[in-house]
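Session log. Operator J.P. requested a structure for one protein chain; no other inputs attached. Running the standard single-chain path with token output.
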Amino acid sequence: MNVAAVDPSSSDASGAGVSHSVVVADVGGTFARVALAHLVPGQTPRLGGYRTYACADHASLAAILADFSASLDQPVHSAVVAIAGVLDGDVLINANLPWTVSLSATRAQSGLGELQLINDFEAVALAVPYLQPETLVPLNGPGDPAQAFPALVLGAGTGLGAALRFADGDRPVLASELGHAALGAGTALELQVLAKLLQRWPHVDNERVLSGSGLLNLYPCLCELRGVAPQWSTTEALIGAARSGEDAVAVETLQVFCAWLGSLAGDAAIAVGARSVYLAGGISAHVQDFLADGRFRERFLNKGVLADVLRQVPVWRVEHGQLGVLGAAVWHAARLPRGG
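Structure written below.
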């Protein structure tokens, strides 16, 4: 587990409080991570019963929540689900989930009396103060994580998520849908790729390239430009071929991906005035060698007169792990009444 076991405020957590349990989940396009959170006001949430579900193997989000609830040795009637997408009334708008999500139907079918849906990267950002420094891999700049707010949290998984974490306040996280903002090209090669993608879609957003699914859009474009036939049809196979070096275009795909991600990270940090950047998401760990080879940092800093400013913005890679699950618990804990 990549989160601290102590409260980040370093305050005495021994005060009296009423214990409360809630099912917490972090649901992406590929996996749903679910746990039972034990909450006491003033203490860091404790997670137990952690399980990972492959989303495509289950009929619905409700089926996953019902299965997890049935595995518990105590009845739990409420849940907080951190999930990719935007809630529009009762329906979640999301391009990467294998099923549609209705809040009311999920609540009824899962047997939960109370169900809240929050943005998945809002949850990841809420967990940032609980990170252990030794789990952070530096990619740029100096800096103390405890002092580096506001913090931009950016992550490529099945899609692309982002949120901004402030040091404190009643609403410490600003969620975003940066993944669906228009993709900007910064090199001649990226312009060629973007031109090809615009032949397929009238709007090419960031996650069309900068995500796990986006890698499978980028790779065929580069194959066409290099005059070779694509060999890989899954993200896992493509990354494996790149890491082994057996396919030169697969290697180039990850190099271009990481450089392009660095450019977006720099743009986003400038746009929101971030003083630090955390790279989360399931893809970052799989492409860690390519993130560290210098291309990401070069493009992160390639922002003209603001390059020297960005040199002082620390960038860390962090394993996604249970961050989203913990963040969902933190979100719920903040809404519990204080005292015992």
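Operator note: The first helix runs from residue 61 to 70.
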